[in-house]
Amino acid sequence: MNKPQELERNVVAHRRRKNGGAPVQKKGQSQRIDGPHGSSYLSTRDLVKSYYKGKIEIPVLRGVDLNVVQGEFTTIVGQSGSGKSTLLHLLGVLDAPDSGEVYFDGRQIDNLPASGRELLRNRTFGMIFQFYHLLPELTTLENVLAPCMIRESVWGYWRRRRQYKQRAEALLERVGLSHRLRHRPCELSGGEMQRAAIARALIQSPQLLLADEPTGNLDENTGQEIFSLLRSLNTEQQLTIVMVTHDRKIACQTDRVVQLVEGRVVEKQPS
Amino acid sequence: MYKLLLCWRYLRTRYIALASIISVTLGVATLIVVNSVMDGFTVEMHHRLNDVLSDIVFEGRGLNGFPDPEWHKEEIRKVLGDDLKGITATVVVPAMFNLTVQGESMMQHGSLIGIDTQSYGTVSDFPQYLLHAKNREQLSFALRDEGYDDRLPSSGWNWRRKRITLERDYLRQMQEAERLRREALGEPVAMNTPPAAETPVTEAAPVTEAAPETAGPVDPFQRKRQAAAEEHVFDEMKQQHPGVVLGIGIASHRYRDADKEVKDIFYCRPGDDIQISFPTAGQPQIVADNFTVVDFYESKMSEYDHTFAFVPLDHLQEMRGMVDPLTGVPSVTQIQIRLHDGVDLEAAQQKLYDRFPPQQFGYSIRTWQQLQGPLLQAVQMETTLLNILLFLIIAVAGFGILATFFMIVVEKTRDIGVLKSLGASSRGVMTIFLTYGFSLGIVGSGVGIVIGLLFVVYINTIAAGLEWVTGRPVFDPTVYYFQQIPTVIEPFTVGWIALGSVCVAIVASVLPALRAARLHPVEALRYE
Ligand SMILES: Nc1ncnc2c1ncn2[C@@H]1O[C@H](COP(=O)(O)OP(=O)(O)O)[C@@H](O)[C@H]1O
Ligand SMILES: [Mg+2]
After folding, report:
1. Per-run averaged pLDDT (10 residues), chain B, 528 residues
2. CB of B6 less than 8 A from some CB of A
3. From the CA of A270, how many Å to the nearest CA of chain B?
4. Is residue B285 part of a domain?
5. pLDDT of B178-231, one tens digit each?
């Protein structure tokens, strides 16, 4: 990983936090290596990904070109099995594409070494899932603190534990879970679990939130509530969000809807 | 940080893993107990053996011995100088002991040792193991009046007199009965009157019922009369044969009675006479002689108690023809040497070999450890074997841990995916499970050590309790040398056991941990 750039990005993130979430104009814009699509924040170029069942190739993505602008709330829709989750995993560097590139903030990220990708997942991206994926042995508060614990050594965490705890409590308050700090995930409802997962995704002040069907497992009202939470995060903190959803009602409330058809992206106007 | 927290939470929520570690705990506990008891046995046995035996035995080849022990002793004194604490010359020969038990003769075999009463006590703790308190102070081969042991309330001169009186009385009664029977049959009285009655012997009694062969040149009654005449010279009421200190195992049998009490049956006791046969020097011939038991030797080392008998050195030398008839210089078969505490036995042995090189002299010079090599080695080997077996048990427990851990990793697959999606490295995930195994190993062996040590400390109480519950003796003093189970706790051994078992736990968790680390985050997240 390129250290100076990493440092710079952190500084930017920090400044934005101080400014109350307003995007900061980057200094040294000329240094920035742009992706193939100009000023886009997150972009992919000709992403190809197939799975293999024995020797049979199952092509899932056949050349995805996607551009996400900073601060935008993008929705990816598509049939079940069309490769939406696969695409999201590629964006979140959880998986590597067969060919094609992923660019974030002007840098190619799909070819980073393992430690670089881990750092990116820990600090720069936040992820939420359909099945919440909270750790059942930890309390709500500990789940939210998990990314901090992963990042810090025992000693470092011990020194900053107050600071982290305050931030986690503030976030839980923000998502409306301040009364469930010491509960285990199994003692929470679906909506509450998703809120905790959102708080966990936000704890390291990420620059990009990737959400894989966050409302897919919730009833309509709760789903709408969760969506409103994401929407407000997007508008208040200018958080860039890429969300996969099945729900047309929710999809049409976002800035931009992208459809995956036969492994390619088809742009859709929110209707 | 998350590694420790998760590890801790997994420990607290997954008791199945603790169950898998129980076998490690038990293995560790047994290892500690076995090692402590075996060490206790070894140490105790070393003490016993070293007390019973002298430090170095200087031995000639064969039963003829070597002449002039005084010159040899002087030379050994010169070689060893101040290291020497005690030295004595002995004669050791194999022997048969013929005990008369209730009219029947009983044979035992063992070693007859001729000892010098003055100096033999300086090379070993021999006097300590005698039953009579006065003999413990200064050994004498003269029979004492009484006061041998609680097990032998009637012994010594008093017993000897009582026994002889009873025997004579019995003999007289038998002869009286015989006489009466013959009278009733109208036969003339053929038998002698009992010697105790002092009636004159009817010399010319006709032998009516005697068969022609008995009436031949050797007249059985003639022989009997000779014996009586001899008896007249040697009055067993007032005199004794040369004394013998008999190993208590030769003269007794230990058993448990119906109430599970340990009891001894004595075949003979101080004051009784026994016959000992042994080979002479030179052209070996068996000679037999009567000895009077003057004391018992009880070292509690059953092997020695069952083989050793001690007689006066000069008498044995005379009987075996080991005294040069011209010069009067005696021979001995052994010189036993005691060194001061802390002197290196092997170095002393080497010095003696330098003075008496084996090429020139036919002496074998051995330390007590070398003499007892097989016994000590057997105990050592037993310990090693048990250790290997028990460690195999812990290794088997390791496979249990392996299986349990694999199950836990499979169960945690999705969580591992989540951790990776939150930025945890493969190494970190691996550390979680290694730490987990390590903590389980620590817990398992820690508890095992505590249980093992408690068991060792209270082992005799536990043995007594088990005896009480099962009604069977757990530790049988009729079998072992000791009254209680001896134990020694070696911190070094305990440390090794703990280290070994923790290592087994870690090694067993390596494979599952590697599997966890290798999990692909996407596959793990999709895992249902
Ligand atoms: N590990 C895998 N092996 C084989 N096929 C897979 C694997 N993971 C996903 N797929 C297939 O890839 C396709 C896309 O999956 P996914 O991205 O989860 O679709 P979506 O999220 O749009 O429902 C599906 O047809 C699925 O069966
Ligand atoms: Mg999906």
Report:
1. 72 75 87 88 79 82 82 85 85 88 84 86 82 82 78 79 86 91 76 49 44 48 61 72 87 76 80 87 85 85 84 87 83 87 83 84 83 80 87 85 88 89 89 88 91 91 84 67 78 90 90 91 83
2. yes
3. 30
4. yes
5. 999 988 887 665 555 555 444 444 444 444 444 444 444 555 566 666 666 665
Nearest to B423 among A122, A133, A137 (CB): A122
DSSP string, B397-424: HHHHHHHHHHHHHHHTHHHHHHHHHTT-
B5 touches chain A (CB under 8 A): yes
Write down which residue in B328, B362, B396 finishes a domain: B362
- Is residue B97 in some structural domain? yes
pLDDT band at A26 (very low <50, low <70, confident <90, very high): very low
Does ligand 1 lie within 6 Å of residue A58's CB atom? Answer: yes
B486 Cα–ligand 2 center, Å: 70
B65 and B19 in a single domain? The answer is no
DSSP secondary structure of A39-65: T-SEEEEEEEEEEEETTEEEEEEEEEE
Distance of residue A122 Cα from the nearest chain B Cα, in angstroms: 4
pLDDT score of A172 more than 60: yes
Contact (CB, 8 A) for B60 and B338: no
Question: Does residue B403 share a domain with residue B313?
Answer: no
What domain count does chain B have?
2
Closest by CA to B349, choosing from B367, B362, B333, B337, is: B367
Of the ligands numbered here, which is closest to the C-alpha atom of A89?
1
Residue nearest to atom 16 of ligand 1 (CA): A83
Residues B7 and B142 in one domain: no
Asked whether residue B387 falls in the same domain as residue B509, the answer is: yes
Assess whether B257 and B118 both reside in one domain. Answer: yes
B433 belongs to a structural domain:
yes
Q: Please state, in angstroms and rounded to a whole number, the distance separating the CA atoms of residues B139 and B245.
A: 10
Q: Do B402 and B471 fall within a single domain? A: yes
B157 occurs within a structural domain: no
Pocket test for ligand 1, best of A60, A87, A210 (most atoms within 8 A of CB): A60
pLDDT digits over A223-251, tens only?
Answer: 888 889 889 989 988 899 999 988 888 88
Backbone torsions φ then ψ of B97, nearest 5 degrees: -110, 125
One domain, residues B414 and B287? no
Residue owning tokens 């990816």: A76
Domain that holds residue B140: 61-152+242-362
In a shared domain, residues B418 and B496: yes
A261 close to ligand 1 (CB < 6 Angstrom): no
Indicate the pTM of the whole model. Answer: 0.67
Chain A residue numbers with beta carbons less than 8 Å from the beta carbon of B17 are: none
Are the C-beta atoms of B486 and B379 separated by less than 8 Å?
no
Residues 6+ apart with CB under 8 A from A29: none
* B478-496: pLDDT as tens digits: 555 667 788 888 899 899 9
* Min distance A235 CA to chain B CA atoms (Å): 24
CB contact under 8 A, B423 and A123: yes
In single-letter form, the type of residue at position A91 comes to: L
pLDDT of residue A40: 74
- From chain B, the residues in CB contact with A210 under 8 A are none
Q: Does A50 touch chain B (CB under 8 A)?
A: no
pLDDT value of position B396: 86
Domain ranges for chain A: 3-268
Q: Tell me, which fold does domain A3-268 have in CATH?
A: Rossmann fold (3.40.50)
